[in-house]
């Protein structure tokens, strides 16, 4: 995740933390008293929490001394409290309780709590609610039955419901928006609600002024002087959502705006309707754009630390968004760093080295037609993993079809070539056959290195309806990756690889503080029998691994995997993950925003990686190799995204991790502790890895 964060991330982080610390906890006056507690008694129909969210006076949260990066303690202001007493009664009225009143006396509501604090306690009498007696809607008579039903179905106001002002305002906006969505661009909804305080009944009258039903007219562009982007290209992109002669709709304007912004060359885009032409019964569309710099440089850095890997890296990216004209994009991005496995203080057992990659990517927009882009890239890479080190490169060429801003389909042809080195630590090595190699290079490496070539077609489909890709709170995401390699495409392996991924987010509450997030990720790799060896063999570079901050958090990075012991006769020997042909991951997470900068979370992760391909029958690896973990987390919201700390404890459900090759004489060591605490044992879920993990990263887990 750190690799995607440029612009001097840690400098921004340090500045934001410094500012937060400096601003927290200042008294408004020397004699100001801290509000230790705020109680609103008598609340039955309206929640105390919703009332507190509408007033200025707040109590100091219990965690305030432990969290200095927020606004600090809350202090009592007598003038603000007098206004809050009126706000409480007014809020009750907005909820339909027009008889509600505060019954406590002002001088009795504020009580001392020690020398420098007070407790505020107010009592309310709610009374009976006012309910809706009748709803009258006029002005919809000219509509067809279909449009009339569309405008009035599932309204937030119903006869017999409590009359709430929020729903009263919302119903007018809702009907107006529905009418404008089917072409009535000038539709207006007005009305009045009559509340009888004596009978506690309300009558709602809504009046609709339809106006003509409009179609889209011409598209006009407002741009910078001497623009580099031709207005014709902007019009063409907007017309993917707005067709001249089609019925006017607000959603089409929003889609057009997203399409133009997705061109990637504008710093600001706004799509609005112009003044309607009542004679032609059309609505012109005005696209207002401001170009961004066509060339940019981004710099950054990252640091990754867990129990199995420590790495520091620097990042750089250069982009020209108008190479050779025509908005052709050329991007060069690089990453260089140094990695230690498992840690820099591991002594003679440490495995370390330079890691990095360099990618050059070219993109041609409007390839053959408007919604199709050509993309080609070449990458050189040097890496270090627990079971092997490698260097190599990959070529990719394909087209991206994006018929909708939220939908993309990317078929591509890929060629990859890697030199794998199976040396792990000291003289201990992983055999090339375990890495999936077919040939050995027994030169100076002593037979521990080999070459792997992959040639495959891959199609990636994404449908992204999240409200925010960095910190989603509502919406969903679905993706599917399909690879088919070898056979007529050559390469060392013939296989099919599937990887679907589904995520869902829903927030609740008046301020949407509680977010429920869920994820399901499956993977299966089906290798075909090799004619030379007669084996169904796969390569370690395209097998599945799990574990880490963005997958199954009950294991460290890539540790949820079949393992290979470096010395099967030594129970204390190092075990390294070699990947599997099946993947199953789920995650259910509850995130609660306690303050504007602090989020707490609890989660339940499950995961499984096995040597066999994924199945759901009697021989499914999920029947006895599905691991579970429960955990708690904290997120500190910053300018560079949420800084996340997750602590997970794996449940003792399931067997030890599988050992490869099968039939090995390796004996599990005594372990099973939680950060070194607790008794040791040999047989437990996920052995030989510890039962507890801690993950530190930037960005949400999913």
From TrEMBL:
Q: Which GO terms describe its cellular component?
A: outer membrane
Q: Which residues form the signal peptide?
A: 1-26
Q: Which residues form a coiled coil?
A: none
Main subcellular location of this protein, as a coarse class? membrane
What Pfam families does this protein map onto? Omp85 (PF01103), POTRA (PF07244)
Tell me which UniProt keywords the record has, alphabetically.
Cell outer membrane, Membrane, Signal, Transmembrane
Localization, UniProt: Membrane
User: Which residue intervals define the domain POTRA in the entry?
Assistant: 33-125, 214-292
Against PANTHER family, the record matches this protein to:
SORTING AND ASSEMBLY MACHINERY SAMM50 PROTEIN FAMILY MEMBER (PTHR12815), TRANSLOCATION AND ASSEMBLY MODULE SUBUNIT TAMA (PTHR12815:SF47)
**Protein name, please?**
Beta-barrel assembly machine subunit BamA
